[in-house]
Every structure is written in C-alpha cells, then in structure tokens.
Amino acid sequence: MKARRLVLIAGLLATWLCAQPQGRILWSFEGNDGIYNAIAISDVDGDRLPDAVAATYYGAYPSDPRKLYCCSGASGDTVWVNRTAYGTWGNKGLDASPDLNQDGYDDVLLGTAGGYTTSGRSVIAVCGRTGDTLWRYSRYQYWGWVYSVRGIGDIDGDSVSDVLGGSGTTTDSAGAVVLVSGRTGQPVWLRRMYDDGVGSVAPFVDVNGDGLPDVLVGVGGNSRSDSVLCLGGANGTTVWRTWAAGSVSDVERIADVNRSGCDDVIAGGWDYSVYCLEGSTGEIIWTTSLGTGRVVMEVVPIRDVNADGVADVVVGSWSPMVTVLSGADGSTIWNGMLASDVWAVDTLADVTDDSVPEVLAGCLGNGAGMVRAFCGRTGEALWQYQFSERVYDVTGAPDMNGDGRPDVLVGLQDQGREPEHLFLFDGAPPAALTEVSRETLRHDRVSGRLYFELSGTERYCFALYDLTGRRTNIERFGSGPAVEHVGLAGLASGAYFVRLRVADAKYKTLKLVIP
Fold first, then answer.
1. Which of 64, 165, 178, 275 is the least buried, fewest Cβ under 10 Å from its Cβ?
2. Cα dihedral sign for 95, 97, 100, 103?
3. Phi and psi dihedrals of 402, rounded to 5?
4. Nearest CA-CA partner of 110 in 169, 64, 70
5. Cβ-contact 167, 146 below 8 angstroms
C-alpha cells in the first residue's frame, strides 16, 4: 500500500511539473566542465549590456586549463577565457569587483580549490576586460581550499577596493580569513581560525566605529569552532562571536530587522537552522529550524515580502523546497516546491509588477535538477525548467539581452548528460512575452516625454525601470481607453526601460536614454 502511495504521489508530482510554464532559454554555453558559479558583470564587450562570468568545477590535476569564462550577455559568445585559474567548488567562490587595475572596467574575483601548486587554494583577481590574471594570493599548503571570495570597500587607503577570502583546513593547517589589497594582491591581514575552516565571508557595516567596513565570517567544517564572527575590517580582530550548534555554511548582511539602528546578520548551516543576529552585538534575534537533515546551504535577503516593513530571508537547504522566512521573527511566509536538495537560491527583480522581488531556486533533483522562479509575494510558481543534470547555481541577473526584463543565469554540474552547462533564461513568465503594437508606446525626444495610447478597455500598468531592474517612481495604473503623456523630469542621466503591461498578458518594452 505504501509503495502504491509513493507511485501515486510521484505521478501527481510529475503531472504538476509538466503543467508548469516552461522558462525561455535565451542562450546556452558548453564550457568544459560543470559550471559551479555564474555572475553578471558590467559590460566588457562594448555592446552596453551586462556580460556573464562563469567558473567551472576545479577538476583533478592535470585537467583542461579553461576554468573561467566571460560570455556576452546578449548572445552567449565567448569574450575571453582565463587559463591560469584552477576552478572553484560551491557557489560562493566568484564575485565581481569595482575596477582594480584602473582600466575603467569592473574585475573578477575567484576562490580556487584543488592543489596549491597549480593555482589552486588561491584568491585570484582577473581583469574583467581581457581575462588576464592581475594577481594571485595563496598560503599554498598552509591553508585549504578557498571556498568564498567577496569584494569589500577600500580598507588600506589606496583608493582601490580590497578583497576578502575564506579558506578551509588541511591536515596540518587551520582555515583562515584574509584581506588582500585589491591593487597589489598582497595581504593586509590574515586571521587564522586555529582549529576550523571558513565556509563563507561577507562585507558588513562599520560596527566598531573606526570608519571602515567590518567582516562577517561563517566558521565550521570540523565542528570545533562553529560560529558566526564579526571581525574589524582594519585588522581582523574580533568584534563579536556568536556560537552555533553546527558548521556555518553561509552568512550575509540584512537590513536592520529589529530597528536597532544597525544592520543585522543572517546565517545558516549544519544544525538545520537559520539564525538572525543583532549586527552590533551578535545577540540572537531569532532562530528557525528547518527540520532534521535539512542542512542550510544558502541564505539570501529579499526586500520586504509580507509588507511589514522588514526585509525577509530566502533559504536553500537539503530540502525539496525553497523557504521564505519573515525577517522580523523567522516565521515561514511560504514554501515553494521543487525536488530534492535546493542548494541554490537568489532573488530576481520584480517581473509581476507587485513591487516585490521574485525568488529563484535550483535543485540537484537526484541528478535531474530544475530551476524554478516564484512570485516573491505569494510563492506562486512563475516558470520552471527541467534538466538531466544537477543545478548547482542560480543567479538573478539584470537585463542581459536588451529586452527590458531581468534575466536568470543557471549553472549545471557536468554529469555527461547535457551538452551545455551555462544557461541564460528570460526572467519573465512566458505568458508575459506577447507584445502589444509598436504604435502604443513611444518616446518623444524633443519634448522629453513618453506617450502611450490605448483604445480598448483593458487594465494597464505603465512603469519605468533602471538597468538593474529597479522600478523608478514614474508609473501609471488604470483602465483604457486612455492617452497618457508622461514627463521625465527629475530622472538622472542614463539608460532606462519603459514597460507597458495590458490585461496581465501583453507587454510592450521601450529603451530610452536620458542625456
């Protein structure tokens, strides 16, 4: 009887999945191994659109040296390949950095795994424009794999942003947090964990009052010093430490949830729980358990979902669902189903016109992974895509192809079943891709005004977005017939996208530039 029920449940789940709207692939890229981490960076190929950088699994030495790629955001074509890095492990080993080498382009940070003799176990800076390695910092055999890298503001006073790296342990050496000069690649300070590793690092606000950003650290791996640390950005000394009941996999800054005047901290890990900590002291504000066996892999802050004025938390874990928790008290707002092991989560700029970001989740799925986009406010599934390999990374990206909608980067593990391993999806639900006529919406450059005209009686929503997908304060709602003349006074110079939605299913998008 139990077997019959399982078969019935599996059949119903399969039917439900097939009924979900399918995501629209904009382009895909083969790579030479599984893509464990992908990010968007500002334009480097000259088409005025963001581009994508992807890092592969580190692989065993010797292996194909192509471990870091830059692809055109518009087409997926290769812009450059870096062959001196060694690949990464997990989805926290890649980040974009403000310009390090003064060439006018953002650069790329990579944390590598593997052997220390072949650019493994390193913090590496790569030129975003050319793909050339700018510098490499390593402790070689005296620390473990570098699981996490993040950019941080200028700490050492040379007007160039600096870099955080966090490493695991070796048989003989403890893990460490290092602050590296973004200009030179030399260490500013290094803080050993003594008997444990570092799973995650993140920049934080100035807690100790010295005028510099401080540093958040998730400690664990050997379960000897499981904790969240706040370190002074200037020298790595402890500001506060909060002990955890298991290794800490991820730690992030979240906007002030308890109105203390200081931003706060969210973290999670191997005790199956999510923690919210007071940013100034490390005192626990709330703790939420996901249940036995549900190791927390990723925590991501999201702009207020439940309209209580407080930022909320998206959680990915060893669970078949993504969970959104209240930032105020840790209660569950909604759960969204996928399949087993939702290891990767992120947010996406609003595509449902409710002023709330959407939620992205990717799962391993016992080898048949999936990416699914959910409405951030309600948890309703917007679209999904099923693969025959595990999904290791999902990233909400800005508009990569110039259509005015935010996009989604997805990285797959290479199990020999999919020919491509990096995908770019349209972030909007497929039903929103039918456009209204071109005559409906136009920009008059002489008057500097936007015009749209509707002859029907459908409801409409008109809104203006910047290039990151964030809505400006210029918006209109109503029902046709209508003629609107919209002024643009007060907008900063730059590129924008105007989107007109009619009757919840038809869109028209227009790009404009304010001089």
1. 64
2. positive
3. 80, 20
4. 70
5. yes
Q: What's the token pair of residue 229? A: 């640390």
Residue with tokens 């989107």: 499
Count the neighbouring beta carbons within 10 Å of the beta carbon of residue 227: 19
pLDDT tens digits for 293-352?
Answer: 999 999 999 999 999 999 999 999 999 999 999 999 999 999 999 999 999 999 999 999
State how far the Cα of 15 lies from the Cα of 124, in Å rounded to an integer: 46
The answer to whether residues 254 and 276 touch, using CB atoms and an 8 Å cutoff, is yes
Would you state the pLDDT for residue 209? 97
Distances (CA, A) of 318 to 26, 39, 178, 302, 430: 29, 23, 29, 20, 29
Under a CB-based contact definition with an 8 Å cutoff, are residues 279 and 204 in contact?
A: yes
Could you tell me the two tokens for 191? Answer: 């803080």
Both tokens assigned to 62:
């010797």
Burial of 246 (0-12, 13-18, 19+ CB in 10 A): middle
Contact between 58 and 87 (Cβ < 8 Å): yes
- Report which residue type is found at 159: S
The DSSP secondary structure of 13-68, one letter per residue, reads HHHHHHHSPBPPEEEEE--SS-EEEEEEES--SSSSS-EEEEEEB--SSS--S--E
- Do the bridges between strand 506-514 and strand 434-435 make them parallel or antiparallel, or are there none, so unpaired? parallel
In a 10 Å sphere around its CB, with 0-12 CB exposed, 13-18 middle and 19+ buried, how is residue 494 labelled? exposed
Q: Give the amino acid at 474.
A: I
CB 113 within 8 A of CB 29: no
C-alpha span between 442 and 235 (Å, rounded): 55
